[in-house]
TrEMBL record:
<dbReference type="InterPro" id="IPR029419">
    <property type="entry name" value="Arg_succ_lyase_C"/>
</dbReference>
<dbReference type="InterPro" id="IPR009049">
    <property type="entry name" value="Argininosuccinate_lyase"/>
</dbReference>
<feature type="domain" description="Fumarate lyase N-terminal">
    <location>
        <begin position="6"/>
        <end position="301"/>
    </location>
</feature>
<dbReference type="Pfam" id="PF00206">
    <property type="entry name" value="Lyase_1"/>
</dbReference>
<dbReference type="GO" id="GO:0004056">
    <property type="term" value="F:argininosuccinate lyase activity"/>
</dbReference>
<dbReference type="InterPro" id="IPR008948">
    <property type="entry name" value="L-Aspartase-like"/>
</dbReference>
<dbReference type="InterPro" id="IPR020557">
    <property type="entry name" value="Fumarate_lyase_CS"/>
</dbReference>
<keyword id="KW-0963">Cytoplasm</keyword>
<comment type="similarity">
    <text>Belongs to the lyase 1 family. Argininosuccinate lyase subfamily.</text>
</comment>
<keyword id="KW-0055">Arginine biosynthesis</keyword>
<protein>
    <recommendedName>
        <fullName>Argininosuccinate lyase</fullName>
        <ecNumber>4.3.2.1</ecNumber>
    </recommendedName>
</protein>
<keyword id="KW-0028">Amino-acid biosynthesis</keyword>
<dbReference type="InterPro" id="IPR024083">
    <property type="entry name" value="Fumarase/histidase_N"/>
</dbReference>
<dbReference type="InterPro" id="IPR000362">
    <property type="entry name" value="Fumarate_lyase_fam"/>
</dbReference>
<feature type="domain" description="Argininosuccinate lyase C-terminal">
    <location>
        <begin position="364"/>
        <end position="432"/>
    </location>
</feature>
<keyword id="KW-0456">Lyase</keyword>
<dbReference type="InterPro" id="IPR022761">
    <property type="entry name" value="Fumarate_lyase_N"/>
</dbReference>
Length: 459
């Protein structure tokens, strides 16, 4: 029998009961729901609204229900209860009688579900922040271990200038550090308590909303009861944070996929993070990197889905809001799995420094530095650019690299060239010379690594 059976003469049809239910999704909120109810009952007793004995019976009954859910002794059925809130309340009343029936005094499922969902969002944001840190640690360990390794830096996926692998990996560490901040902001956005807003307007009972907010670890109660029951911005913030981080992981994984091709050969994924083919015996496929790349699409879909659900929704609670949880849970679960998978993949991959070095020799990566050499000797940079462009053309025609040219070849283009030009063609020297803050020079990257470590220690 439904909790609103007083007003109704007929029970729900089995199909509508199942269609309207959120129980399969919100059963995951049982612990939050019980915590919210214990706080509410304790406050009701402290305010003299229910007796201390009733509050104690409620707390005890809910603790037993929680234990039974966790042991598997208690499971709920959508035909009996639409959602976890009703399922637990009905079970409590069945177990302890009238005390259980008093729990819902001054409360509605509208403030209850918003409270549970906020507790959940805070918890999941915190979990994700921990997983984010683990991935950053894995990237930084590789950056440190292969500190001197040089690879081509790309623009337009064409060889551009040489960079340190550490610098390249640290770029992802920085993206992830910002994702951490976005997750922290999402956690803070959820950190306000709707409990006591009741259905939409507050209640006539002398509730102490500050006490329940504090008991549940919220920063403060939400100051407008209509907003309290209808705001889902905090879930948008969480899914947005998940989406951006998934996009970052998709970029990282795209590079890992490219880097593990025969064409690049920059890395070898460990067998644990690759799969074979059912027909081609030689294959080693980067399935898990591809999956992370692919899952990012679904998470962005979760964000769009909730945005569209919220669009034009009138105040206050509408059943549409029941659609909020599935996508948020999916986004958080997916990102967490992707963090774990990416961390393992990064930690166990083999860096093929020789393949990176061999590619760094191709594509005239020193060209900018040769132009800078002339500019530093007084030739306007645009002219220097043209001179070096000619030298590259000569190399193209001869099928050689800049370092294969003789000093006379250089001097044929400009008499500013002297024998020290060879230093401009040395890749480690080219890299090391980029000493500006944030540059790829070894010293600059050491500073960056120290800063990233400090940020990690603070997070
Ligand atoms: N199952 C509902 C949800 O997830 C709980 C709130 C229902 N409130 C209501 N008035 N129908 O949103």
């Amino acid at each position: 029998m439904a909790l609103w059976s007083g007003r109704f003469t007929e029970g729900a049809d089995a199909f509508t009961q199942q269609f309207g239910a959120s129980l399969p999704v919100d059963t995951r909120l049982y612990a939050q729901d019980i915590a919210g109810s214990v706080a509410h009952a304790g406050m009701l007793a402290a305010q003299g609204i229910i007796s201390a004995e009733d509050a104690a019976a409620i707390a005890e009954g809910l603790a037993a229900i929680k234990a039974d859910i966790e042991s598997g002794a208690l499971a709920f059925d959508v035909q009996q209860s639409e959602d976890i809130h009703m399922a637990i309340e009905s079970e409590l009343t069945a177990r302890i009688g009238d005390a259980g029936a008093r729990l819902h005094t001054g409360r509605s499922r509208n403030d209850q579900v918003a409270t549970d969902t906020r507790l959940y969002a805070k918890q999941r944001a915190t979990d994700l922040m921990a997983a984010n840190v683990t991935l950053r640690e894995a990237l930084m360990a590789q950056a440190e271990e292969h500190f001197d390794v040089i690879l081509p830096g790309y623009t337009h996926l064409q060889h551009a200038q040489p960079v340190l692998l550490a610098h390249h990996l640290l770029a992802y560490v920085h993206m992830l550090a910002r994702d951490f901040q976005r997750l922290a902001a999402a956690r803070d956005a959820a950190d306000a308590c709707p409990l006591g807003a009741a259905a939409l307007a507050g209640t006539t009972y002398p509730l102490d909303r500050f006490a329940t907010a504090q008991a549940l670890g919220f920063a403060h109660p939400i100051s407008n009861s209509l907003d309290a029951v209808s705001d889902r911005d905090f879930l948008l913030d969480l899914i947005y944070a998940c989406s951006v981080s998934c996009l970052h992981l998709s970029r990282l994984c795209e590079e890992l996929i490219l880097w593990s091709t025969s064409e690049f050969g920059f890395i070898t994924l460990s067998d644990a993070y690759a799969t074979g083919s059912s027909i081609m015996p030689q294959k080693k496929n980067p399935d898990f990197a591809e999956l992370i790349r692919g899952k990012s699409g679904r998470v962005v879909g979760d964000l769009v889905a909730l945005m569209v659900t919220l669009k034009s929704l009138p105040l206050a609670y509408n059943k549409d809001l029941q659609e909020d949880k599935q996508g948020a849970m999916d986004a958080a679960d997916t990102l967490e799995d992707c963090y774990v998978c990416a961390a393992g993949m990064i930690a166990t991959m083999t860096v093929n420094a020789d393949a990176m070095a061999a590619q760094a020799k191709k594509g005239y990566l020193a060209a900018t530095d040769v132009a800078d050499y002339l500019a530093k000797k007084g030739l306007p940079f645009r002219r220097a650019h043209e001179v070096v462009g000619h030298l590259v053309l000569t190399c193209e025609q001869r099928g050689c690299d800049l370092e294969d040219l003789a000093l006379a070849d250089f001097q044929a283009e400009s008499d500013l060239f002297e024998s020290d030009i060879v230093e401009c063609l040395n890749l480690p020297a080219i890299v090391a010379a980029r000493t500006t803050y944030g540059g790829t020079g070894h010293d600059a990257v050491r500073v960056q690594l120290a800063e990233a470590q400090a940020a990690l220690a603070a997070d």
